[in-house]
């Protein structure tokens, strides 16, 4: 179930907390920490938070952050992808790269259009376990990619 709190942040019951202090900031009336409810708006009867991707792994969306700290609006889509675990995982960075491309095109762009958000960058993050935004966890495996939204596609941007 999605509910809206007093600061206009959409949260799922039991969802991970939004960005910590000093993390993503409020921008133009939109609160940080929007949880993507794309599937809930498309088909509430079949809503799930698990997304299949090209590598075959299932990833779970944990949060969407609006971040203006880089000096321009970046929208960060953060997913848990247990199959990328460095010691026992079955999905390497080479296999996860196309997953991030897919998530940007198939999930992030429709979300941005639906919410009339026009960021300079979209960042797709995969982590093998939930890690608070901005926190360090030496045991966690995390992959990130940055994209420039361009119409109906995401253009990969090398960091």
Automatic annotation (TrEMBL):
InterPro entries: DUF6497. It holds the Pfam family DUF6497. This is Acetolactate synthase. It comes from Parasedimentitalea huanghaiensis.
């Amino acid at each position: 179930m999605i509910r809206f709190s007093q600061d206009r942040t959409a949260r799922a019951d039991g969802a991970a907390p939004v960005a910590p202090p000093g993390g993503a900031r409020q921008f133009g009336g939109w609160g940080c920490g929007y949880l993507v409810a794309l599937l809930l708006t498309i088909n509430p009867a079949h809503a799930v938070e698990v997304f299949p991707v090209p590598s075959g792994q299932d990833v779970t969306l944990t949060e969407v952050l609006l971040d203006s700290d880089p000096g321009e609006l970046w929208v960060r889509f953060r997913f848990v992808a247990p199959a990328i675990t460095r010691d026992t995982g079955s999905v390497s960075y080479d296999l996860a790269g196309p997953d991030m491309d897919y998530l940007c095109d198939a999930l992030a762009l429709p979300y941005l259009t639906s919410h009339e958000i026009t960021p300079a960058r979209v960042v797709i993050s995969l982590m093998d376990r939930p890690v608070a935004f901005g926190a360090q966890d030496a045991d966690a495996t995390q992959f990130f990619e940055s994209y420039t939204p361009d119409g109906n596609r995401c253009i990969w941007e090398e960091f």
